Automatic annotation (TrEMBL):
Catalyzed chemical reaction(s): 4-imidazolone-5-propanoate + H2O = N-formimidoyl-L-glutamate
Pathway as given in its UniProt record: Amino-acid degradation; L-histidine degradation into L-glutamate; N-formimidoyl-L-glutamate from L-histidine: step 3/3
SUPFAM superfamilies linked to this entry: Composite domain of metallo-dependent hydrolases, Metallo-dependent hydrolases
GO biological process, one term: L-histidine catabolic process to glutamate and formamide
Residues the record lists as binding 4-imidazolone-5-propanoate: 73, 131, 158, 225, 308
Chain positions recorded as N-formimidoyl-L-glutamate binding sites: 131, 305, 307
Binding residue positions for Fe(3+): 64, 66, 222, 303
Native source species: Quadrisphaera granulorum
Full protein name: Imidazolonepropionase
Keywords recorded for this protein, A-Z: Cytoplasm, Histidine metabolism, Hydrolase, Iron, Metal-binding, Zinc
Taxonomy of the source species: Bacteria, Bacillati, Actinomycetota, Actinomycetes, Kineosporiales
Described purpose of this protein according to its UniProt entry: Catalyzes the hydrolytic cleavage of the carbon-nitrogen bond in imidazolone-5-propanoate to yield N-formimidoyl-L-glutamate. It is the third step in the universal histidine degradation pathway.
Superkingdom of this protein's organism: Bacteria
């Protein structure tokens, strides 16, 4: 069944030439984009939608979230706003609440969070385990996540649960690299490690990532969030697809990231910035402008989680990236679509996401505005008109 989309105010393709097309039309064939061109030469189709002069973008690709959790940390947030610093130890509070939830409750919580994200234009979602921290609960988180999102990341190495389980760091790293990794392996595509003071050292992080690589998983790293550190260099050394947070970078970190893209035959390491988290933890904003200027591909993600960033609004992230990180609107939208797809290795090939290209998945975000500029010009406004995922309209709006 072919479906024609007309009346497009601005078609933001994010294709190889980064085209923004006036007077364009789009044909969907089932779940796939079949044709893009001038509205005046659009082919006849089985059905049609006129979007009334609104802008059409690729759906957001949110490449970093932690949706498998229960519990509330608003008191920790309030304490932070009163001057307390964020520390990794807060993760243990969510671990306690998450372990207590039964499977059905946890699944419903994740499903509702995914629905809320989709109703705001997110059509591809990565989410992480990391609030289970023992074999039973990490496996449960991975299994539930795999039923609800596109990409699942094993983050057993989120925190040593010494306060919860009394386990030593060495014993915990052995558990993560052995039985835990083996248990979650069928449900996940990626492994991640929180390489930071208060979480995992460089050596522990390397051990976890090497074990994950041996198990055939792609690699991601939480790095340089709370201070300068080895996260970025480790991520590049081990060929991670992305290093996320990147608030505290020295010149060497930026050079190493840029150099990882110097061989055109293979992808390097994407820098994923998380502006909602930076605001919610009152951290220095990640230097997205500097990274782009140095030639490093940047992804923009929500980092939706109960501790540091309780939002799945990619529009909020885009507006913040423009207003406070000094990206242009086009750069921020690219980072939140194509950049996220690149960070997940889903930017190219049949069924690719993050750009409107023939053969890619038909994931559309129709704005309640004639151009993408409105995303930063009218921050915080409800600018999602409608969403299509794999050629199907997404029910909306859903509030959460
Ligand atoms: N930094 C590590 N993990 C999460 C926060 C987890 C939490 O505090 O619950 C993050 O990406 O910010
Ligand atoms: Zn995170």
């Amino acid at each position: 069944m072919s479906h024609l989309i007309t009346g497009i105010g601005e078609l933001v393709t994010q294709d190889d030439d980064d085209r923004v097309l006036p007077d364009a039309a789009l044909v969907l064939d089932g779940p796939t984009i079949a044709w893009i061109g001038p509205a005046s030469s659009a082919p006849a189709c089985d059905s049609a939608t006129d979007v009334g002069g609104r802008a059409v973008l690729p759906g957001w690709v949110d490449s970093h979230s932690h949706l498998v959790f229960d519990g509330d940390r608003s008191a920790e947030f309030a304490a932070r706003m009163a001057g307390q610093a964020y520390a990794a130890g807060g993760i243990a509070v969510t671990v306690g609440a998450t372990r207590t939830a039964d499977d059905e409750r946890l699944r419903q919580l994740v499903r509702q969070r995914v629905a809320v994200a989709m109703s705001q234009g997110t059509t591809t979602l990565e989410t992480k385990t990391g609030y289970g921290l023992d074999v039973e609960h990490e496996l449960r988180s991975a299994r539930i996540a795999a039923g609800e999102v596109d990409e699942v990341t094993f983050l057993g190495a989120h925190l040593v649960p010494s306060a919860v389980d009394g386990i030593t760091a060495d014993d915990y790293v052995r558990l993560v690299c052995g039985p835990m990794l083996e248990a979650v392996r069928p449900h996940v595509q990626w492994a991640d490690v929180f390489c930071e003071r208060g979480a995992f050292t460089e050596e522990q992080s390397r051990e976890v990532l090497l074990a994950a690589r041996r198990a055939g998983l792609g690699l991601r790293v939480h790095g340089n969030q709370l201070g300068p550190g080895p996260g970025v260099r480790l991520a590049v050394e081990l060929g991670a697809a992305s290093v996320d947070h990147v608030n505290f970078l020295d010149d060497d970190d930026v050079d190493v990231l840029a150099a990882s893209w110097s061989d055109p035959s293979r992808d390097g390491t994407v820098a994923t910035v998380l502006p909602a988290c930076d605001l919610s933890t009152r951290a220095p904003l990640a230097p997205a402008r500097r990274l782009l200027d140095a030639g490093v591909p940047v992804a923009l993600a929500s980092n939706c989680n109960p501790g540091t960033s309780y939002t799945s609004s990619m529009a909020f992230c885009v507006a913040t990236a423009v207003l406070q990180m000094h990206l242009t609107v086009a750069e921020a939208v690219r980072a939140a679509t194509w950049g996220g797809a690149l960070a997940l290795g889903r930017h190219t090939g049949p069924g690719a996401v993050g750009s409107l290209t023939v053969g890619h998945r038909a994931d559309l975000h129709v704005l309640e505005a004639p151009s993408m500029t409105h995303l930063a010009y009218r921050p915080g406004m409800p600018l999602t008109h409608s969403v299509w995922r794999a050629g199907q309209p997404v029910p909306s709006p859903i509030r959460g």
